[in-house]
Automatic annotation (TrEMBL):
It catalyses: a (3S)-3-hydroxyacyl-CoA + NAD(+) = a 3-oxoacyl-CoA + NADH + H(+). Residues 187-281 form the 3-hydroxyacyl-CoA dehydrogenase C-terminal domain. The keyword Oxidoreductase applies. One of its GO terms (biological process) is fatty acid beta-oxidation. The keyword Lipid metabolism applies. This is 3-hydroxyacyl-CoA dehydrogenase. Gene3D superfamilies: N-(1-d-carboxylethyl)-l-norvaline Dehydrogenase, domain 2, NAD(P)-binding Rossmann-like Domain. It comes from Leucobacter edaphi. The record marks H140 as: Important for catalytic activity. SUPFAM superfamilies: 6-phosphogluconate dehydrogenase C-terminal domain-like, NAD(P)-binding Rossmann-fold domains. Its EC number is 1.1.1.35.
Length: 283
């Protein structure tokens, strides 16, 4: 599968786009927002030094060649016209994903395989809306995909073995380590472990137990981990925990979502990629 279309150019969507292009794929970057597409060149300039820092084989020439393989568009039909694989990275809301895939299923070529990068939603809840559930599954990336390079591949009962293996092979071709998930699990492996951990940190903050820096410091010193939970929140970006928790049944997690919105999102502190989140990266 040489021709990839990525739906959504946010933090993770843009990383998937760049990593696939860096690995030699031809990538169409689709977003409904022209403003978001206009920001992509700056995003590539942000990612280039990170590749040079973290990947021994990265060179300025290879990074420039990756950018040359990326074509942005706000026209969905144009984005899908020659797609072998579509990876969706739109906001983490079931209704938005279902509506997106309904449109994609009407426009994409018959051969195209569909993959959602959803962090928490199940493929079986989205697949029927695509019109071709046998070619629908999930391919989940960890943030900072070039370095934290797992690719969790998870189908549903109706996913064909051929589509499943094709996506696992694609993940390997773009430098991921394919993790084959044998049955549907909200959160796959990674987020089934990570989300409760981040939720515990959020509750410590909401309860006023300790500051983000001290919560992180405790975890890092006591376990030897390279990053604490609020550093991870900054890497993920503020929009994801806000969307996931604003309608939570847990009042403390709703309070955390409101804190994230008022004290961070509304102040332009969107996470590490924006220069500020729980920590200030600009200085």
């Amino acid at each position: 599968m040489q021709n990839l279309t990525v739906l959504g150019t946010g933090v993770l969507g843009s990383q998937i786009i760049f990593q696939a292009a860096y690995s030699g794929k031809d990538v169409v970057a689709y977003d409904v927002s022209e403003e978001a597409l206009e920001k992509l060149p700056a995003r590539w300039e942000y990612l280039k030094p990170l590749y040079l820092r973290d990947l021994p084989d990265a060179t300025p020439e290879k990074l420039d060649a990756a950018v040359a393989r990326i074509r942005p568009t706000a026209d969905l039909a144009d984005a899908l016209a020659d797609a072998d694989l579509v990876i969706e990275a739109v906001p983490e809301r079931l209704d938005i994903k279902q509506q997106t895939w309904e449109r994609v299923g009407e426009l994409a070529p018959e051969r195209t395989i569909f993959a959602t990068n959803s962090s928490t939603l199940l493929p079986s809840d989205i697949a029927p809306f695509s019109g071709r559930p046998e070619k629908f599954l999930a391919l989940h990336f960890a943030n900072e995909v070039w370095a934290k390079n797992t690719g969790e591949v998870m189908g549903h009962e109706g996913t064909s073995p051929e589509a499943f293996e094709a996506v696992a092979q694609f993940a390997e071709e773009i430098g991921m380590v394919p993790i084959r998930i044998h049955r549907e699990q909200p959160g796959y492996v990674l987020n089934s472990l990570l989300v409760p951990f981040l939720g515990a940190a959020a509750k410590l903050l909401v309860r006023g137990v300790a500051s983000p820096a001290d919560i992180d410091r405790t975890w890092k010193i006591a376990t030897g981990a390279p990053a604490g939970p609020f550093e991870i929140y900054d890497i993920v970006g503020m929009m994801t925990p806000y969307q996931l928790n604003k309608d939570s049944a847990d009042p403390e997690m709703r309070a955390f979502a409101e804190l994230v919105k008022t004290e961070y999102i509304d102040q332009g502190k969107l996470g590490k990629g924006a220069g500020r989140g729980f920590y200030d990266y600009e200085s």
